[in-house]
Amino acid sequence: MYISFMVESPTINAMRRNLRQALRRRHLEDAAAILERLRLEDPISVETRGGELEFLILSGRLEEALPLARTLEENFPASPRIHYLVGRLHYQRRDYEKATESFRESTALAAHWKTRQWLGKSLTQLGRFEDAESTLLEIVEEHPNVLTDMAWLYERMGEIPRAIRTLEKYLEFYPEDEFAGASLQRLRARSMDREHLIEEVQTLKELEEEIPETVHAEYLLSIIESGDIPQFRKMMPDLKTRLPEKTLTSLGWSCHRARTPDLAFELFCRVFGRNHRSPKFLAALESDARRAGRIPELLELYREFAPKYPPLYGRAKSLERRLRS
Predict the structure, then answer these.
(1) 247: pLDDT confidence band, cut at 50, 70 and 90?
(2) Interatomic CA distance for residues 190 and 183, integer angstroms
(3) How far apart are CA 163 and CA 200, in angstroms?
């Protein structure tokens, strides 16, 4: 473990404060400049090394952050902030088991509502809904921004009316939150029966009014889930260029569950850059590629992204062996 006996100067303390502020505001260029100075004047402190880790996470340099995270866990095992940041890294990499472990370790060292919030989010991702709810309920009264996490939890549980009520309550505190408003709109669309939803969309079309993205997404999902695949096929060429990646990902999973591998493959390829670190996503994509006879195209995609994400080299070799056998 590193131990520093340096006397902290007012200058170093000021740089640390400025670094925290820059990272909180996501002013990454400013944070990089401050870190450069701190590496010279305060290179081995937990504040500087933790700042480096947080900077890499916020910059999306997750593979570069991973070895640093391991080093910091060894060097600063008693730092709740290091364990929190390592948890955030694992969460970003969609390794929710490890994220949960790190957030629990951080909480054991020093309880903080933000750490418990991310613990609740991780438990939700793992499908441990009862634990997630009890974790979030402990902090939601004093921190109403956590209501969005609870709404997402209830949606994952299939309790759509409860999720709607939770978002409505959140918007009483934060009425300007556009994302929450869009989520509420989407959930209200999901709560409609299919006939009502189709009627709503048709009415908007007839009036030549713009269909809200969230309503449109639920409309498309309802088409797939109802089994009207021919209708969805007709709409596909236009959808791939118009809809955001998050919606295309949801549609891809719906097509995968509906056993239409060619449609699922096309949609998943369109959002590969967003999801390529997820083992679950890659397994579904490979399954659909095999069923649709599209493995050569998938190999090209793997080779394109492998320099950024080396595990794809191994998956590509495995696919090549299957192609030859």
Answers:
(1) confident
(2) 10
(3) 22
Contacts for 145-150 with beta carbons within 8 Å, 24 or more apart? Answer: 145/170, 145/173, 145/174, 146/113, 146/117, 146/120, 147/173, 148/180, 148/183, 149/117, 149/120, 149/121, 149/124
User: Which residue is it, tokens 């299957």?
Assistant: 322
C-alpha 148/C-alpha 186 separation (Å) is 14
And the tokens for 160? 């759509």
Asked whether the predicted pLDDT for residue 204 surpasses 80, the reply is no
